[in-house]
Each structure stands twice: as C-alpha cells, then as structure tokens.
C-alpha cells in the first residue's frame, strides 16, 4: 500500500487540507480542517496505507491555537 499524507495549510481566508496535490475544500478553523483530514485518514488507514497528518502550530495563519478569530480581539 501507499502513503497518504494530509497537510493542514493556512489560506488567506481560512484553512485547507492538502492531499495528493489538491486542496479543494476551505475551512473556517484549523480544527475543522484537522477533523476533515482525520476522517479521510481513517478511510485510508482501513485500506492499509501509511498515514501522515501534519498541522502547523500557533505561529501559522492568524496566530491562534485553533486557527479561528480570537473573539477577545474583536472590538
């Protein structure tokens, strides 16, 4: 079997999951993108693939842990 890689990537308007060179969906939060990647990875796992999931830390995107706008910073 092959390798299935899922990379959470910051976009100007949110987040996406890069897989096989494609990133067709947009997510409002890094957490939502992660949940989508893990769901896809679960299917690949059942098919016997090696799985890699990578998620950037707080320094990526809008600099919050979950990748969503911090409600405390909204005026």
Automatic annotation (TrEMBL):
A Pfam family: DUF2188
Residue numbers spanned by region Disordered: 55-75
Protein name listed in UniProt: DUF2188 domain-containing protein
Organism of derivation: Bradyrhizobium australiense
